[in-house]
Design brief:
5-stranded parallel β-sheet; 2 domains; Quinone Oxidoreductase, Chain A, domain 1; 7-stranded mixed β-sheet; alpha/beta; 10 helices
């Protein structure tokens, strides 16, 4: 391991804004049975990490501080642990961790949570795949989309939304994507009918649909579940990834990565990227040391695609 004994990792010691994030120097871990130490080449950042860092989930899902950040990564196997036969030192992999620690130079992962990285899938694409991919996968499954269905997607050009619309297109659904006008051309590439934010949104969505709306996937929150109900979408075909209060009020679904976070589904999504069926848009790449700036950009919530950190 080239005598590396320490490594850098993003951490925070208290809840707050991006300013609480800092780079810590930690002792390099040794992989245990079934684990793999991976040298990170790219790790994305996600909206959910903002909520975790701000303490929004502290009472629901307590987590000890100081805490690291990140679940997605792509990198190179540095050391397989005992009993790992599927990967060897030097293998390129895409993976995930549930320990909030992928935004770092190294990450310790379970071998079952890794898949081989195809040669022409970039590090940035691989490092950005897991969370948005599995979240979109879970949401699309939740609303039981089938060919010919009309589905509305809020924040349709964002990190998760951009994958939702592509998975829906692969199924053969008719998609109405709510997004800023600057993203309309990208959405049209995938056959999405774009609708801009703003006044009279319900009326404009109905006009775009021209018929009943079968499903609604909310990737933004802030009233979109109310809008879905107003549009007459059945509650069991509404899925929100962020508005848990509205979900409780209307008894709609909240499925996302929590129901799709498996190595098998990550492999399926990786295959889709490798075969050109799925695009992972990369908005911007920041060095690990600029993690605060990366989250400041993310939290403006106008990004098309993913923001990625590279050590």
């Amino acid at each position: 391991m080239e005598n590396v004994q320490k490594y850098r990792a993003v951490q925070f010691d208290k809840y707050g804004g991006p300013d609480v994030l800092h780079i810590s120097e930690l002792d390099l871990p040794t992989p245990g049975k079934g684990q793999v130490l991976v040298r990170v080449k790219a790790a994305s950042i996600n909206t959910g990490e903002t909520a975790e860092r701000e303490g929004s989930f502290a009472t629901i899902w307590p987590w000890p501080l100081p805490s690291g950040q990140g679940s997605d990564f792509a990198g190179i196997v540095e050391q397989p642990g005992p009993g790992v036969a599927s990967f060897k030192k030097g293998d390129a992999v895409i993976g995930f961790t549930q320990k909030r620690d992928s935004q770092a130079d190294y990450v310790l992962a379970e071998a079952n949570d890794l898949v081989p990285k195809p040669a022409h899938v970039t590090w940035e694409q691989g490092g950005a795949l897991f969370m948005v991919g599995t979240t979109a996968y879970g949401a699309v499954k939740a609303v039981s989309l089938k060919k010919g269905d009309t589905v509305v997607v809020s924040a349709a050009a964002g990190g998760v939304g951009s994958i939702v619309v592509q998975l829906a297109a692969l199924i053969g659904a008719r998609i109405i994507g709510i997004a800023s006008e600057s993203n309309h051309d990208w959405l049209k590439k995938y056959g999405v009918i774009p609708v801009s934010y703003g006044p009279d949104l319900a009326t404009r969505i109905k006009q775009a649909a021209g018929k009943n709306i079968d499903a609604f996937i909310d990737c933004f929150g802030r009233g979109y579940v109310d809008l879905a109900v107003q549009l007459g979408v059945p509650p069991d075909r509404i899925d929100t990834l962020i508005d848990f209060e509205a979900a409780k009020k209307y008894k709609v679904k909240t499925d996302g990565s929590d129901v799709a976070a498996t190595g098998a589904i990550l492999q399926e999504l990786t295959n889709d990227v490798d075969q050109g069926k799925l695009e992972i848009p990369i908005a911007r790449v920041y060095p690990l040391t600029q993690v605060r700036e990366a989250f400041q950009e993310l939290e403006k919530r106008h990004t098309h695609g993913k923001i990625v950190l590279v050590p």
